[in-house]
Structures are given as C-alpha cells and as structure tokens.
C-alpha cells in the first residue's frame, strides 16, 4: 500500500521534491536525498488578501524547508514576479535535528508594496534603499526607518518620547493609561470613584536591529504612588523606509477580582498642533471606507462663503489660500467660528458606535454621527504633519474607544482605549457563589449536572492576559482620502505574506499530516464540502451569536441547546470551548492545506485568545490552562492540555510573532506545575501527595503539552534548548520502556532527571481524551525527528489498538480498554499506523471508523435550519447535530486521513 494517495503525489510532484514531505515513510538516508533534490525549488509567496502591502509598514512571514536541504547559515533572496529583487531580512526560527533549516522568518518593507507574488530562494538579498537603524545611548533607544525617527525610553513613564519626520515632531509622550475603580455599584446610587495609573517602564531591550526590521520590547507595570500592578509587555515594530510603526500590547491581570475593576485601558500620544485652526484636520473612520472629514475650525457651511477653492482645499486637507484672498466677510469674522478640539468615538458593542464632539472641556458634547462597526482608526494634525492611529479588532474586541482632546490648542492628545472608560467597568468576578460545592463529592455531583468542574478559589482571573495590536503613521501632511482609506484598511486587516500550501506540504512540517485540497473524486469532494460547511458554520455562528468582546473574541462555544435555539453560553462546562479537543489544530491544518485567508484570520483570532485568556501567565498556576466554561477562567480543571504549545506553533512559524514565541518559551518549565496541582485530584482512588521525584503525569494530555513546549524550545534553539531536548528524549525513552507503553496511561516523573520511573507491572490506563489534545500530532513530529524505534513501536501499538475490538485489545494487553468514545477522531491514528506499517486493513478500518462509528457519520444530513421569529434573539440558522468537540475531531480526522490513506477512501 502506498502511504500517500497516488493522486496527491502526482499533484504535489508538479512542484517537485515531494518525497521528502513524508520522510517518516522513507528510509532516513532516502529521505535526506529526496529533500536535497528539492533544494533548487523556490518557495512561492503571496499576500493572503488582495491588495498587497497597502499602507502597512511591512510584513513578516515564515517559510518551511525540507529536512537537509538548506544549511543553517543559508541566506535568501526575495524576487517579485516581474523579476525585481525585493530587500528582505531573514532569520532562523527552527532547525531540523541535523542543523539544517526547518523554518525561516522573512521581513519586507514598503519596497514590497508594488508586487502581488514573489519567490523565495537561496541568494543574496537586495539592499534596501533606506535601512532601519537602531542606536542605543544611555536611557534611550533611537530607531530610524529612513523616513521617521522614534526615541524609545528605557525607564520612566514615556514609552515613546518622540516620533519625528524630516526633523518635525509628529508625536510625543507615547504612554500607557489605566483607570481603576475599587467597587461596583450594583444598584443606582452612583458612588463610583476612579483613579488613574500610568505605565512605568522596568526594562527596554532591542530584539532586532535591521536592516529591514527592528523590534524593541518594553516591559513594566502601571503605577500610582506606591502601588504597581497590571504588568504590560509592549513591542514596537519598525520597517525600513516606512512612515509607520506597529505596536503589540499585552497586559496580564494580577489584581483582586473583587476590588480591582478596570475602568479604562489605553495607549496615549501627544500630537503638536502647529497650523492655523482652519488648517488642522480631524479624520475618524466609520465602517468600511466611511470617514468623518472635518477641520478644527471649519469654513464650509457658513452663512458667508469664503470661496469654492477655499472650501475644496479644506475638505481635501490641503493648506488654505491666504485668508487675504477669501471673501473678507468670512476673514474678518473667523474669530466667531467655533473651534472643535475634542472628539470621541465609542464602540460599546459589536453592533453600534457613537461619535460626538465639543469645543473644549466644560462645554456640552454635540452628536456627530454614528454607525455599526467602526474601523478603529483616526487622524489628527494639520497641513504641516499629523498622526494617524488605529486599533485592530476594534469592534470585535469591544468596548473600545478613540479620543482626541485639545486639537484647538498647542497640542492634541490622542488616546486609543482598549477598554472604553464609557463602558461598564471590567468585571472579572466569578459568576456564582459556589452553590455549596465545598467537597470533592459535591463538586463531582455538580459536574454531573452542569458539566462544570467547580472548586472554591479556582475561578480566578489572576494571571490571564490579553494582547492587542495598534498601528501609527507619522504623516508629513494631512493624508489624502485615498491614503486614509488605505491606512484604515491596514489596521482592520494587516497585510500578511504567506508561502503556498504546496511548499508547506513539501517541507513535511507539523508531522506531514496534511495534503493539498483535492476534489478530484466524488468521495474526496464530499469530504471537502463537509469541511467547508463546518468552517462556514462556525464563522457564521460567531457573527450570528456575537462571539465578540475584549476577553471573548477568538473563542467559540462548546455545545448547542436545541430547545432554546442557543449555544449553552450559561451552562457550566458547555459554554466557551477553551480549545477542548483541539479546534485550534483543526483550523490551522485547514489553513495549511488550503491557504485560505478567511481560515487563517479565524485561526489567528483563536490563537491570540486561547494562548492568552485561557492560560495563566502569573501565579502558582502559571503554565496551565483552564477547561471549558461559562467564563474562560471559571473551571477548576487547570491543565497542560489547554496551555499546550501545540496550538500556538503554526501561527508562530507562519508569522514569527514574538508574543506567541514568548508564550511557548514560558511553558518549558511547566512540568513544575505538577508539584502545585494534581490534575486528577478529584477522582484518585488511592492517596497521592505530589513528590518532586515521583510526580504522577499522564502520557496523554499531560505529556503532549510538555512535549510540545520542549520540542518548540529545542528546534528554536532557545535559552533552554539543551534541557528541552534532554527532557524530550528521556521521557520518550521511559514511556517506551513502560510494560504497556502508552497504554500504561501514566507514570511517576522525576523533575530533576526528567525521566519516568518504569512500572514493575503492566496496567491498562486508556482514556478517550488522552490523544485528542495534540498527542497525535506531537508523536508524528517526534517520530520523524528522534530516532527511537521503541517509542515509535509503543505509539503504533496505541494507534492500532484503540479502535480495535475488545477481543483484540485483551489478546494484546491481557484486558480490554473498557468503554471508549471518539472513534472517529481516533481514526487518524489508524491511518497513521496504516501508512507506517503498509497495512491495507488498517487503512480500511480508518475510513470505516471515520464514516460509520460516532461523530459525523455518513447518515448525517448537511443542511441549515432557519432560526427566526421568537425562537431566537437574532435570525439566522442552526444545525442541531453540530458540536465543537465533534467538529474538531472530524476536521482533523478528515484532513489527516486524506493525507495518509486517501487512496483507500471508499467510493
């Protein structure tokens, strides 16, 4: 049996070098030779969405390479479709064990703006017309893109001291603002009191210094008086030849949920105002290409007309003619035309924003319009220069707000509120009083009715985080309408370069468990249609059910309530999904094989959410994630299966995103968490006290999370790479050495040696959940990377016997595995074993379990049922058979089975 469908081989062969993508099938030397034959094949690179770079500063993307093809010091050149060489900065993000390149990251600046398609191949990169440079001196870091210069502080409260262009100060005093409220008035007494904290820097370091891309990281806390809290981590990104820069802003909540209520959270800049009031301009984006287009002191609509040319120039944002040339009935009365210095756009929900303005503080606000979903973008300045500013996912992560204050004075103040001070305060209190669930038996009873695993004190937000993305442009003059539309578009959807799916398949990354989308037969087309249906359903449900908000955007719900025609958003463990059974992986594998931008963006939002909000980054549970629940932090099950790096790896390697890199690095020592918290403490039948030299760690959901962090640190060459590699190898060896291998279920782990104790007798400890949180994918990668036949044999045994009959299980292990579930999801293990062992019967069983066991079977009807009228809050549609657990496993099984045993797909 061919381990790869012949049709997929023929299709991939068109881009050459395909054999290397499945080196776990070939012999090791054959695989290396096959990879070398692909060395001359350049990677094909293009923009995810049409329109190219647009107004963005630049783009960074990842490229994957087959094992053994490129040496670790290889340099690359990027060439546009018309043959133009484009300046590119390259660095390594992962290596194969032999030292050859596995993943590389590449940054391009504005010189890539004129092309849609590129090729990336070994060669000498072009030199940028303008290079980005970084100078460090005392307490300042100065970054010069060749167009703008930014001065970054190493201490104090001003993250960005100044942004200048051609010697003109465009913005100063870039800083962070936090408003805290100490209590909530649940009635109508109006007793709220606010206090303001300002960001204070503890450290600033240069992470990259050009020539195309520079990155500065700034860390600190928000401070007022003697109190410092709410840690922040900010990265500033600069590209050569760009007039703009990007900010990635992360906060980690470390307050008391009962008295530290965030009332406002923002990024603030001061913008000098040099021009006459009638030559100062305010531009605020509405939805799509819509804009509020105004001057601080307007000359349009007056009782007397200054002249058509004057009016036209002001609307365009151009310098007005000398007032001596206007109709003097206007010129002599300009002191009576009000100046409008303050503007606010508040997006308090996903469905509406309001815009207002006033002349100055102490006077009433005037409504200036409104709409549905604002872009989160604005501009303030004048004909001699000004600042454009934008907050990504503005309406999706409501409540958000844009403020302009004092534009009629010497300097305007711009604040991008990540949490609007006009919204209700951020309330992170636990949502119920415990309902008497004080003991483990009571908590298990609660689990049996609401599916929530409650435990007093565990429903805490302490240590969860959230990342936001902002962009800023230093303009030499008020931008044209077209330029502003382009800038706003870059805020809404930052342009992203990406390599082709065929290149990713050829490189055989992420275990080689995916192949290009193929609809060449009716059976294949049917599965592809179902995969498309499921993705579209969840994308539509996010909109229909409004799965938006600062803490919620990016997650999806777990289970549907057919009686209420509503997802079970308020029922214990059935609410937010929190990565249960790997929807993150389903989405990323769906993207890897298709290159679809809509799938990428959905997966990107999920990665930003699940890696930050669903995981603890501070405190005793740092490194653990929280099981699905009504609030993302509510459930008392804090486990590796949610924090696992396996869900973050694709986004990191595809984009080189440093923040996600931080998240994965922080997990390297998360084996220490097993000293603090026993994941199965409520269901143990024998006494157990965590012991540093004998920690009970499962070989499934626990070890797969640890292995993912160790693998990532090792291949990235991180500070703890040697330790990570040693931990990987020692745990793989000692899992394989167990009497029943993976079927043993769990082992006693020594934190100092990194090894499991080998049990003295065989045990059968199989759970249907063990392999469904990234273990399948981790084992496929590790077997390809680490030459340990015993580990491979242990994993193949687990793969072969999970879906086997009870009789077959008992014959192999002395007893059967008991009552199991999720056979459809486990069909991909049948497929993997079939490909490895050249076993036709296993391949046939894979498809039988996929289509005729549990999950979405061949009997399922793939249609939409309208929901309208009084049945639901908003009209839309539903599908009563769909649940997120099943969707994730169906998606992964379909994708991997097609890649591994597609030739055995029954007609």
Outline the fold blueprint.
Elements: H1 6-13, H2 28-37, E1 43-47, E2 59-64, E3 76-80, E4 85-86, E5 89-95, E6 101-108, E7 117-122, E8 133-137, E9 140-144, E10 148-153, E11 160-165, E12 168-181, E13 194-209, E14 213-224, E15 227-239, E16 244-252, E17 261-272, E18 280-285, E19 291-295, H3 308-316, H4 328-331, E20 342-349, E21 352-358, E22 366-371, E23 377-382, E24 385-391, E25 400-405, E26 411-419, H5 440-450, E27 465-475, H6 481-492, E28 497-499, H7 501-507, H8 522-544, E29 560-561, E30 566-567, H9 583-594, H10 597-610, E31 625-626, E32 638-639, H11 640-643, H12 649-655, H13 658-665, H14 673-676, E33 695-698, H15 701-716, H16 721-736, E34 746-750, E35 755-756, H17 775-785, H18 789-802, H19 806-813, H20 823-837, H21 840-852, E36 865-867, E37 876-878, H22 884-901
Antiparallel strand pairs: 1-7, 1-28, 2-6, 3-4, 3-7, 5-6, 8-9, 9-10, 10-11, 11-12, 12-13, 12-17, 13-14, 14-15, 15-16, 16-27, 17-26, 18-19, 18-23, 20-21, 20-25, 21-22, 23-24, 24-27, 25-26, 29-30, 31-32, 33-34, 34-35, 36-37
Helix pairs in contact: 7-9, 8-22, 9-10, 9-22, 15-16, 15-17, 16-18, 18-20, 20-21, 20-22, 21-22
Pfam families: PcRGLX_1st, PcRGLX_2nd, PcRGLX_3rd
Domain PcRGLX/YetA-like C-terminal alpha/alpha toroid: 494-905
Domain PcRGLX/YetA-like central beta-sandwich: 132-488
